[in-house]
Design goal:
25% of the residues lie in helices and 42% in strands. With 161 residues, the chain is α+β, with helices and mostly antiparallel strands. It has a single domain (3-160), classed as Alpha-D-Glucose-1,6-Bisphosphate, Chain A, domain 4 (2-Layer Sandwich), CATH 3.30.530. Strands 1-2-8-7-6-5-4-3 form an eight-stranded antiparallel sheet. It is globular. Belongs to the AHA1 family.
C-alpha cells in the first residue's frame, strides 16, 4: 500500500499523509492534473468522485462530488492557490452544497501536495492545515484519515493500468 505514514497534530493544526509510489514524479503529477484520473482516486472506493470542473492553475476552482453507496452526494471544491508543475501544488479544500457553494458549517483546509523522487519512484507528502483544532478534529471524526488512505491507495492500480 502506498500510504506509509499518517500524522495528525492538533497543536500545529495539521494532518500529514506520506505515500510512496513506484512511478516517476511526472506520472503522479498527471493523476492530479487530469480530471478523469483524479476522479478515480479522489474519493475512497465506497464514495467515488465525479470531477465537474478542474484545471490545475492558480486562481482556478475545482468542483466535485462524491457519491455514497446509497446514492447520496457530497460536494466539495478546491481553490488552487499555487502550482509548481510537476513537484507541488497548493489549494484550499472545502465542503459545499449541491450547487458548489461553500458550506460554512464545515472546515476549510489549506493543502500542499508535494512530489519528490524517492527510491526510484515518488514520495508524495500531503499536508492539510486547519484554522482550528476543532476543525481538524471535526474532519478526523468524519473519517478523513481512513477515507484519504483508501483514496490514495487506489493510485497504484491507476498507474499500473
Amino acid at each position: 500500500m502506498p500510504v506509509t505514514d499518517v500524522q495528525h497534530d492538533l497543536e500545529n493544526l495539521t494532518l500529514t499523509i506520506t505515500a510512496d509510489f513506484a512511478a516517476p514524479v511526472s506520472r503522479i503529477w498527471q493523476v492530479y492534473a487530469d480530471p478523469r484520473q483524479l476522479e478515480k482516486v479522489w474519493g475512497p472506493p465506497s464514495h467515488p468522485a465525479t470531477v465537474v470542473d478542474h484545471t490545475l492553475t492558480p486562481g482556478s476552482r475545482t468542483t466535485y462530488f462524491m457519491t455514497g453507496p446509497d446514492g447520496e452526494k457530497y460536494a466539495g471544491y478546491w481553490e488552487i492557490t499555487a502550482v509548481n508543475e510537476p513537484t507541488s501544488f497548493s489549494f484550499l479544500d472545502g465542503f459545499a452544497d449541491a450547487d458548489f457553494n461553500p458550506n460554512p458549517d464545515l472546515p476549510v483546509s489549506k493543502n500542499t501536495y508535494t512530489f519528490t523522487e524517492h527510491d526510484g519512484g515518488t514520495r508524495a507528502v500531503y499536508v492539510a492545515t486547519f484554522a482550528s483544532a476543532e476543525g481538524l478534529q471535526q474532519v478526523l471524526d468524519m473519517g478523513v484519515v481512513e477515507g484519504s488512505t483508501l483514496a490514495i491507495n487506489q493510485i497504484d492500480a491507476l498507474i499500473a493500468s
